[in-house]
Amino acid sequence: MAIDLTTLWAFIIAFAVFAYVVLDGFDLGVALLFPLFRKRHDRDVMMNSVAPVWDGNETWLVLGGGGLFAAFPLAYSILIPAIFTPVIAMLLGLVFRGVAFEFRWHTERGKFLWDIAFFGGSLVAALSQGIALGAILQGVKVTGRAYGGGWWDWLTPFTILTGVAVVVGYSLLGACWLVMKTDGDLRNRAYRLARAAAIATLLFIVAVSLATPFLTGAYWQRWFAWPGILITAPVPVAVAIVAFFLFRSIDLQKDYQPFFLALVLFLLCFVGLGVSMWPHIVPGAVTIWQAAAPASSQKFMLFGVAILVPMVLAYTGYAYWVFRGKVDPEVGYH
């Protein structure tokens, strides 16, 4: 049986997007928690906890965006104009966050301003990502082979809901990361924040899950029609089980379990998103096969991905291994 290159590329891009969301999500989450930690020492430790890995995490964003452009050019040409504003806001937020990260260590008088910039850039980036997700999920107007909607179609109550949900979810990842990487009072406060963020995240998961089937009849049929419900029902059940163990690990003050269980929770949400959209890449309008590049192009790009992705995975794994364990509060990024 021949390999379906289009499906393979869809999974490659989905993997890149998920890798970006969970890896860059926790360091954005650390920045989102900045206002809740007033001591300069705590903020220094928080930044040092992500210093070795934060810029490498964004590699996956390049692979996801570049892969979409190369493997599914029609989808790229439709989706990017539809979410142009939140995408530009996200990129500006990431740039501003990166500049603040570097400049903060080289000033004393203006350090508080770069703290604000670090938090603000991360907030804009996280909120924009959630809004872009919601804008795609709610459907994009397509005319012929191009985007046919208006400039502000991306801004709706549903996209605001998904935007805030991503901010809250990233805060959960950030708090669980601090639990894993820090000690003392900072870690104790991170436990409390992780519990609060977990409650809020679950509430937003429920809210988005309840709102999504009402966006289009296709989503409703996918999740609640028989016999498809036999396939979709395990997803919310798995979310409930993971949530139980997440709260248990926080209550027992485990170091590593909360972070990895939070990652599993994100993975289940990602699976739910895939269940809703598959096989469409532009919901309700364009399937992955309709948007795909020629097979010859997909084969050519696959050779590059087969070389680059293992390299990136090896580098990422090595970086996390080298900087494993708790952050030394007296040593860090300067």
Could you characterize the architecture of this molecule?
This protein is mostly helical and 334 residues long. It has a single domain (5-322), classed as Formate dehydrogenase/DMSO reductase fold. The chain is built from 15 helices and four strands. A two-stranded antiparallel ribbon has the order 1-2. The protein is globular and about 60 Å long. The model has no long low-confidence stretch (mean pLDDT 86).
The number of strands is 4
Main sheet specs? 2 strands, antiparallel
Number of helices: 15
In the CATH scheme, what's the topology name?
Formate dehydrogenase/DMSO reductase fold
Weakly predicted, low-confidence segments:
none
Strand order of the largest sheet: 1-2
What would the principal axes of the Cα set say about the shape? Answer: globular
**Radius of gyration based on Cα positions:** 20 Å
What class would the helix/strand composition place it in?
Answer: mainly alpha
- CATH class group: Mainly Alpha
* Topology pattern, helix = H, strand = E: HHHHHHHEEHHHHHHEEHH
What are the key terms here?
globular; 75% helix; two-stranded antiparallel ribbon; 334 residues; 4 strands; mainly alpha; 3% strand
Q: Could you outline the blueprint of secondary structure elements for this entry?
A:
Layout: H1 5-32, H2 40-50, H3 54-57, H4 59-71, H5 73-82, H6 84-103, H7 111-137, E1 142-143, E2 146-147, H8 157-181, H9 184-211, H10 217-224, H11 229-232, H12 234-251, H13 257-277, E3 280-282, E4 286-287, H14 288-291, H15 295-322
Antiparallel strand pairs: 1-2, 3-4
Helix pairs in contact: 1-4, 1-7, 1-8, 4-5, 6-7, 7-8, 8-9, 8-13, 9-12, 12-13
